[in-house]
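Quarterly update, task 2.4: FE2/S2 (inorganic) cluster-bound model.
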Amino acid sequence: MTNARIVEVFHDTDGFLRAAIQCPPESVPSPGAYVMAVHPQITREPLATPLFLSGYAQSLKGFVAAPPIPESWQPGDWLSLGSTLGRGFLSSQSVSRLALVSLGSHCARLLPLAADALASGGAVSIFTDAPLPRLSPSIEARPIIDLPEAFAWADHIVLDSSLGELQSLNIETRESIPAHSEVLLHSPLPCAGLADCGICAVPLKLNKWAYACTDGPVFSYGELNLL
Ligand code: FES
């Protein structure tokens, strides 16, 4: 475990809480991967909290963790961080038109990909019905109803969604999502693979199963069984 310090806890314009966390570079999860955090002073939190990268803060050695953040966390508190875990996103730096799609309540976990794509000269659109955080003016935001336009425009699509949210898309939309699109699957990760709890089990095609905590949480869209 590595010691880390909460430097700031703040709400973005989407209304969700973030935490700026100071820690060594090896404890910063890559986009889509995660790190488990334990707050040693708050014993009423029985489980570790999975933290995903949402961004970097200026002059912060560490990272900004995406929601959800426990309401009890305060600036100045210490955390113990484990090793970074899970399969994150493939690099988006070679993508020239990136569509980010959040079917959930926020798009914070997708934002590091936007920053990387813009830095390498790409264009980025976000499709979501969720409230928006502060975004670069270079990012176009569209509602989910416009999603079919992403299939014609983007050369890579990345989604943040639960299995149920994907299943709730109409059949035509589901069949239009390219198989190589990446999905950051929203799933509870109570044991992060340590106890084999199975709560994060994900159905794959050909009657196979995977664990989101260790085999994901990023999957290729084409390998998921949405039936
Ligand atoms: S979270 Fe327990 S096996 Fe994945």
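Highlight for this quarter: The longest helix spans residues 111-119.
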